[in-house]
């Protein structure tokens, strides 16, 4: 029996990425960039969790309705895609308030169970965010990146499989906690941990290594994939960014959708709320 993995799409515009240096655009590419992803999910009869940025939903209400009607999970990726540790508690509450009002307008009274912070921006510095999520009725968070490899995010020592997250220390499990956490699950080889199942890491690694690594993870547990529509979209604008940002942002965009399809073909996926037994 194939292991059931979790599939998430962070539904944002190319300019929401931290690495493009605050460039903005008036034109939304989200609908066009998301369409091939939705088509592939239909073709492989797979449902995913879409963590939606409110600004995208505001410009594309029909896109959100169609994702929802297809049976995918709608989660929250904040309204404005500002990093949670930069917002502070009261602005974070305001941001979520705006997101929920908008979703109510677009989808009616739909329960939103899952949250992912932009750029995995929850760690012990802003663990207050967990209480805020609880106040807004969330049942799970998916913002913990359990290793320190990027200068922007990551917290080493956190569990690498779903756990009830402690409000005192996000790296700890607390069996009484009302909030589940679905962290990224890296590939472990000896003492080496490699986050192969999303974003730049997934775009950069050769398909054969990806297949081998993900199968290896599946020997003991499921993994969680995250993907962004702009990562698989040829028309994502390319800027002369500093080398590091350029490589992380643009490497492998032209083959990313093929790789995404490769995963759908060879692994089994469901929505995050389903893998957590929340519906
Ligand atoms: Zn994001």
In terms of topology, how is this protein built?
Elements: E1 4-11, H1 30-43, E2 49-52, H2 54-59, H3 61-69, E3 73-76, H4 84-87, H5 89-107, E4 114-115, H6 128-135, E5 140-141, E6 163-164, E7 180-181, E8 187-189, E9 192-194, H7 199-204, H8 207-218, E10 224-227, H9 243-250, H10 253-266, E11 268-270, H11 272-275
Parallel strand pairs: 1-2, 1-10, 1-11, 2-3, 4-5, 5-7
Antiparallel strand pairs: 6-7, 8-9
Helix pairs in contact: 1-10
The structure holds zinc ion.
The site of zinc ion has 6 residues, from loops.
Compact overview of the structure:
The protein has about 280 residues and is of the alpha/beta class. The chain has helices at about 30-45, 55-60, 60-70, 85, 90-105, 130-135, 200-205, 205-220, 245-250, 255-265, 270-275; strands at about 5-10, 50, 75, 115, 140, 165, 180, 185-190, 190-195, 225, 270.
Describe this structure in words.
This protein is α/β, with parallel strands linked by helices. The mean pLDDT is 92. The strands form 3 sheets. Strands 1, 2, 3, 10 and 11 form a 5-stranded parallel sheet that branches. Strands 4-5-7-6 form a 4-stranded mixed sheet, with no helix packed on it. Strands 8-9 form a two-stranded antiparallel ribbon. The chain is 37% helix and 13% strand. It has helices at residues 30-43, 54-59, 61-69, 84-87, 89-107, 128-135, 199-204, 207-218, 243-250, 253-266, 272-275, and strands at residues 4-11, 49-52, 73-76, 114-115, 140-141, 163-164, 180-181, 187-189, 192-194, 224-227, 268-270. The longest helix is centred in the middle third of the chain and has 19 residues, at 89-107. Bound molecules: zinc ion.
């Amino acid at each position: 029996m194939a292991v059931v993995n979790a599939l998430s799409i962070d539904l944002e515009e190319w300019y929401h990425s931290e690495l493009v240096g605050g460039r903005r655009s008036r034109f939304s590419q989200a609908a066009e960039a998301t369409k091939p992803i939705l088509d592939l999910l239909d073709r492989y009869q797979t449902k995913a969790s879409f963590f939606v940025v409110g600004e995208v939903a505001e410009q594309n209400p029909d896109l959100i309705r169609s994702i929802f009607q297809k049976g995918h999970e709608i989660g929250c990726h904040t309204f404005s895609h500002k990093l949670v540790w930069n917002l502070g508690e009261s602005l974070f509450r305001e941001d979520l308030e705006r997101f929920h009002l908008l979703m109510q307008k677009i989808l009616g009274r739909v329960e939103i169970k899952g949250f992912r912070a932009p750029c995995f921006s929850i760690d012990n510095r802003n663990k207050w965010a967990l209480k805020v999520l609880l106040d807004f009725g969330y049942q799970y968070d998916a913002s913990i990146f359990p290793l320190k490899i990027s200068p922007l995010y990551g917290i080493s020592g956190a569990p690498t499989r779903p756990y009830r997250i402690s409000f005192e220390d996000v790296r700890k499990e607390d069996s009484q906690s009302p909030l589940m956490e679905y962290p990224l699950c890296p590939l472990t080889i000896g003492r080496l941990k490699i986050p192969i199942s999303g974003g730049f890491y997934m775009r950069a690694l050769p398909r054969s290594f990806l297949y081998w690594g993900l199968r290896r993870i599946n020997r003991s547990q499921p993994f969680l994939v995250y993907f962004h529509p702009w990562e698989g979209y040829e028309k994502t604008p390319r800027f002369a960014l500093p080398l590091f940002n350029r490589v992380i942002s643009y490497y492998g965009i032209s083959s990313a959708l093929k790789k995404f399809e490769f995963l759908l073909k060879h692994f089994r996926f469901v929505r995050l709320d389903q893998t957590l037994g929340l519906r």
